[in-house]
Write a structure and sequence with these properties.
This is Stf0 sulphotransferase. The protein is α/β, with parallel strands linked by helices. It has one domain: Rossmann fold. The chain is 46% helix and 10% strand. The chain is built from eleven helices and four strands; from the N terminus they run βαββααααααβαααα. A four-stranded parallel sheet has the order 2-1-3-4, with helices on both faces.
Length: 224
């Protein structure tokens, strides 16, 4: 919080998984002090409610269905190559049962499927598949914190948004995002990202409020 004319404004970067956050965070961690701002970066567990009112917030989002696919494969490969976090017992069951995101989503859609309960449990158990409201709370609370939102970016326009963020933060314009798979924590090419229509339908239903939040933030970003 900015208390005197001599103190810098504190800005927090919230890291929502599979939104391009690893790349952004790596740059901000190495450039945490600017002429006007002190930037604090956080892990996946930090939500808007954890940030004091009056201190500014940056976060990035991604289309919820695209994020679901990316999150599924990220955890399936145990976070490699950037990390190597072993599966917990339930995750071992999940990835032994569902080979692709499509298979999980189809079971999510079919209440008669023998794997329907496991599919439902997967959506909350795997961090990268969880709802965005884990970070923003609810719509009323988010709206009450709008004055604290410094910048919202999107994975789909990561380079363009990062350029805008650098300008707002008064960072060196020559700074660039990591381009390697490890630095960017990027999925490898060649993964099966196909979704059947029933799978898409299930995900649109499951992520209804996430899609609403994503679109709302798109509109907010356009206004700024």
């Amino acid at each position: 919080m900015l208390n005197t004319s001599h103190e810098k404004q504190i800005i927090h970067f919230l890291h929502i998984g599979k939104t391009g956050g690893s790349a952004i965070r790596s740059v901000l961690e190495n450039n945490s002090e600017t002429t006007q701002y002190t930037i604090k970066t956080h892990g996946h567990a930090t939500a808007i409610k954890n940030i004091p009112k009056g201190e500014k917030i940056i976060f990035f989002l991604r289309d919820p269905i695209s994020r679901f696919i990316s999150g599924f494969y990220s955890r399936k490969r145990k976070g490699q190559p950037r990390y190597n976090i072993e599966w917990r017992p339930l995750e071992k069951e999940i990835f032994s049962t569902f080979e692709t995101p499509n298979e999980l989503a189809l079971s999510l859609n079919d209440s008669n499927s023998t794997h329907h309960s496991l599919a439902l449990e997967s959506m909350d158990y795997i961090q990268h598949l969880r709802h965005y409201n884990n970070w923003y709370g609810d719509f009323n609370y988010f709206n009450s914190r709008l004055e604290d939102i410094f910048f919202i970016g999107f994975q789909e326009s990561l380079d363009k948004d990062f350029k805008q963020l650098k300008e707002k933060l008064l960072l060196d314009e020559k700074l660039d995002l990591p381009r390697d798979d490890i630095g960017a924590h990027r999925n490898p090419i060649g993964l099966d990202k196909h979704l059947d229509e029933d799978a898409k339908e299930a995900l649109v239903k499951h992520y209804k409020n996430d899609i609403k939040f994503y679109n709302m933030c798109k509109n907010l970003a356009l206004k700024n």
